[in-house]
Structure formats: C-alpha cells, structure tokens
Amino acid sequence: MNRISVIVTNFNKEDYLERCLLSLLNQTYQQFEVIIIDDGSTDGSGEILNAFERMHEHIHVYLYEENKGAAWARNTGIEKAKGEFIYFLDADDYVAPHTLELMVKHIGQAPLLVGMISPTPIDQEVRYEEELPASVSFLKEKIRTKVFRRKSIVNILMRKDHVERLGLSFHEELMVYSDLTFFIPAIQNVEHIPYLQVPTYFRGECYDPIDRPSLRYLTNDVKIPDYLSMFIYLMNEFREDSFINSYLSVDFINYYYKTMSTYLTNNPEFWDVWFDSLVECVNLLDKDSIENCGFLTKREMKAIRSGLKRTVMKRIAQRQTYHRLRQALKGRQALYKELYRSVFKKRPIKSNRIVFESFSGKGYSDNPRAIYEELLAQGQPYEFVWILNDVQKEIPGNAKKVRRLSWKYYYYLATSKYWVINARMPNYITKRPETVFLQTWHGTPLKKLAADMKEVRMPGTTTERYKRNFYLDSQKWDYLVSPNDYSTDIFKRAFKFKKEVLDVGYPRNDVLYQKNNPSEISSLKEKMGLPKDKKIILYAPTWRDDEFHKKGQYKFDLKLDLKGMREQLGDDYVLVLRMHYLIADSLNIDGYEGFVYNLSSYDDIAEMYLVSDILITDYSSVFFDFANLKRPILFFTYDLEKYRDTLRGFYFNFTEVAPGPILLEAEEITKAIVSIDHTSQQFEDRFEAFFEEFCHLDDGTASKRIIEEVFRNESIK
C-alpha cells in the first residue's frame, strides 16, 4: 500500500534528477509512490525520467510540453496523488534515507509534520547514522512563526484529507512565492505542529545560478513583483485572522527594508512600475506592525500610504545615508569602503593614471608586471600605481606603491582611468563606467573554470555564491587577455564574457623569448641565490580546492621523496620549490638546505622558468608557459583520479595530451630525471603538437600588442 504520495516537480533539472530519485529509492520506508510532474522541460529530463519509470513500478512520470510554473505542477501532482499523505520534493534537492520513515512514525494524529531543510555540505559526503534519535518538538502558537518563516512547502508530510477538506491549492499566478498560499491556510487553525529536528532534507546546490537559476535565486526584478502580488492576495484572504495578519505585516516590512527599498534605489526605473502595488500593500498592513518598526521606516510607510512617491524616495535615501554612516564608524575598512562609494568615486578620473595589481597585491609579478615594464621601456607618459601588500618592495620606474586595502588603495582605484589586474576583485569594488578594466588573467586552463565547474568545493562559499560572484566580477572587465585560441573559447563561456578578448599570447611569456640566453640565465641564478654549476629542477604544483585548515588557510602535503632525490640527483641538480601563492607559507624543508630552495615568494615565475632545466608539475597551468622553452616536463599526479573526477574536472584528456610522462609515485620522478634525455625523446612528437596548439601566439611581443590595442586605442576614443 502506498501510504505516501511523494510529489516531485521538475523543470530542466537533468543534472540533479538522478541524485534526487535515488535518494527516494534508498528510503528505509518503502510504502510510497513517486509522482513526477515534468513542467515542460527542454533539456534531457524526459529521457532520465522515462528510464526511472521503466525500472520502478511505483514511479509515475507525467511529461507536459508547456511550462506552466511550479504552482501548477504541484497542483497537478496533488490531483494525481493516491496516498494517505502527500510530500513535496524539489527535483534539485534530495532526502536522507530515514526521512519518510521518521515522518510517518512521528506524525501521530496531527494533520501535518514539518522537517528541517538543511544546506548541502560541500566539504564532505553526507553521512547518516544507522539509528537516529526520535527527536520531535511541538511548536506552540507563540513560536509558530518559525514555521511560517521557511516560506517553502518541501519536507512537510501532510494528510491528504486535510488538503481536501480545506481545499488547499497553490496560487498559479505566482512564480516564486506560491508556497505560502498553500502553507499558510494549511496551518491556520492547527494548534500544535510537530517539528522533526534531525537532518532529513538537503538543498541541492544550483549549478548554473546565472542562466538557469533555481526559483530562490531569481533576480529581484522577478521576485519583488511576485512578492507584492502574494502579499496582496494573502492579506485579502486572511483579513480577519490577526495572527496571520501580524506575521505577514512584519514579514513585508522586513522584506521592504532589506530588499525592496535597496533595489528600487539602485534601479529607479521600477518605481513607476511597482509603486501602485506598493501603496496597496502598505495600506493592508497591520497598524501595530507599522508602529513597532523603526522611526525612519515608519516615516517611509506613512509616505507610501499617502502615495507620495518623491517623498518616499527622499526618505529612503536619508535612511540609507544614515545607516551607511553608522556602518562606516564600525571600523577602518568600513570607513574606507564608504569613502570609496560616496567620496572618491565622485572625484575626477585622471585619464593618464594606471593601477596595476597582481594576485591581490601579493607581489610584483605576472602579466601586469610585463605590461608595466613594456610601458616603462616605451617611455609612455602615464602615472603608474602599483597595489602591493608590501610597499617596501623595490620595483623599477617611478610608480607609486600603495598598500592594498589602505585608504589610498580605494582612492586610486576610484580615480584611475585604467586597471591592469590578473585576478578577481572584491565584489564591493564597483567600477566607474569611465574606467577601463584590463583583466589579464593568469593561466591557460586545464582545470575547469567558473561557470564550467559543476560543483565548487572551497571553504567559506557555495557553488551558487562562487559562480554568481565570479560572474559579477567578470562583467566589470572591458578587455580580457587570452594566451591561445583554445583559452579564448573557454574564457568566453566559463567567464560569460561578451566584451573584447585580446588573442595575443601572455605578456608574462615575453621574457621567455627575450632573455633565453646564457648571460641572462647566469645573472638570474645569481639573483636567486642558486648555484651556477648545477642544473635546476623546478617543482611548481597547483593547490587543491578541498585541502584547507579554514577559509583563507590552505595546506599542502609535499609528497616528493626529498631524501631519495638528494641522494641520487644531488651531485648534478638542485630542487627549487615554487608553490601556489595560497599554500606558499605552509612548507617545511629543514634539513635539505643546499639541495632544496623554497622560492615560492619570488615574484616572477617566468624568470624561474628561464633558469630551470626540468619542470615538475601536476595540473597547474605553469606547464603551458614552460613549454615555450621546449624543455622537459614531468607530471607528478599522485591524485589524478580524484582531481580529475571529483574536484575540478579537465577540459581535455590530460593523460593523452600532456607533453611529458604522467608519474604517480615519487620514486618514478627520480628515475625519469636520471634518464631525462631518453624520457624527452619518447615525448618529442607529443611535445611538438602541444606547442603548436597552446604556444602558437607567444612570440615575445604580447605586451606591445596589448598596449597598442588598449591604451592607445582607448585614448583615441
């Protein structure tokens, strides 16, 4: 007997469906049917759903050609449900194996039972205890608002006769907030609501929050009018219910304060579109709720009631200014950010000022350095500003050195015509329209980037937040430098970048063509403190997204056999370590002095390429650059399967394209170096093919071509 009808609604969720449905099939309680309403999907959902239906008799799939919205799909699912209970599950979410069993066990005689909605852990697989405690609490009316706040119908077990008796349905004209039109009348007269306080339901992460966002991640220009319509509908429906009236009024004021008024300030074109609905909403508010809100908000509510649009706009601006000033007094960075927004960005822009920054101020390096030095060599009449964490660092030329996140940092960003930067910027740094942002980036991608990544496994963020923040940053860029045609295609897609890509090669590689001679190499070895009578092995691995102590603190386990390498190679070679900047400070090489040199803090890795005879790396983009020198490359990929299949994924078959041997054990590295001439001969043809595809644009003139395209052309506009 199917006691539960699980209603799954789906629209273009092919990437999530299998996980969702398998979580149902793995339930410890099996007396249920699955009703899947496919609401006009245009992706591969239909094929996946049909396959599940063929294999499992209690799965019933209904495919519809027209997309009518989640509310319609859920109402359709209710009509088809035959169970004693109904349970809603979104296709991009999933449930724990014990979910249905615990819910049936603890609902008792109540008309409905509510369970927790948990965010998906990103740093580990979800693990479940074999036996979970039967932890149930009953929410009395005085805290029933907690149940209201969820604004979602998922993970609630509800008796079908309760739905039928009350004639419950979802308001189909609403896109985002229809759940409340079902849920509020469902609990209106329920005295006690059992609430299951163990993890049972997990929100799946949205893999494409920009082009295919979940309903909860739609933009405010869609969500705000939907909220206004929902509020008007429910306040009219429950005009006589003081509890619901009060809850909805408080919720509206909070939504107006935190979301709506801010959005209207930043997008004034919507004032005329929404103002009449806003007035109608405020006139429906519970009077006590208005009286209990802050003085400034109360003034706005009264002005809205009177239909005084200009007065409302003025009072919102006054309130926001007041709160920004209060926020600015909370600390130095808060003050600087406010100065940037309200003072510095109103100063005139200097048309000949260029700001340079490399890897968030960590050094004087990479593509920005190469462009800067070419501008110096040409004697260009610009005012140069370098953003650095260490302003004591000596750099050539007469550039101003400005400490990152100082007040000068914000001032020069606000007043410079050009930004030359190779990494992402903080989201709170907004660019003026007159400023030209040259994003040089910092590598040829092997690992999937940004929007091309499926899931993001990094500390302190989620997939949605990471991808959305990346997108917001890339929309600031005016030019993007690409090292080869292969990268150009990826950058456009992964960064969702639609402006001008400069296919000129990487400026940082110019030096590999300009200084690849014995005299320069000897000078560089002396500068780095390396012995001139020995060959150089450069070890430059990437970082692992999931290896960290906490946000901002990454770790790395150096898996090289340093003892064995020194014993067999120490007479002829030294080993130079160049670690990713995120992990550069986490190494300990005590006892290997004279053989191992940690030059991770050395600014210019291109100069390190020049002195190196052999490169050992893994998935780092350094091998694309080093290949310009046509010197041997060894790939130490001890975690290849995990990195390729779990963490990032690759853009091409790495093992077939890599211009050198794939080595999984530390002992193999020493053997390959001992017979390096033979190793190189084995990969000669593959290396040549690799060079033609990925190094074809580099010729030592990338910086000159960028200067011609960006600075000279922009000055003419």
TrEMBL record:
Record-annotated membrane-spanning stretches: none
A single GO molecular function term of this UniProt record: CDP-glycerol glycerophosphotransferase activity
A GO cellular-component term linked to this record: plasma membrane
Annotated membrane topology: Peripheral membrane protein
Annotated localization: Cell membrane
Cleaved signal peptide residues: none
Organism superkingdom: Bacteria
Pfam families: Glycos_transf_2, Glyphos_transf
UniProt record similarity statement: Belongs to the CDP-glycerol glycerophosphotransferase family.
Protein name: CDP-glycerol glycerophosphotransferase family protein
Protein source organism: Alkalihalophilus sp. As8PL
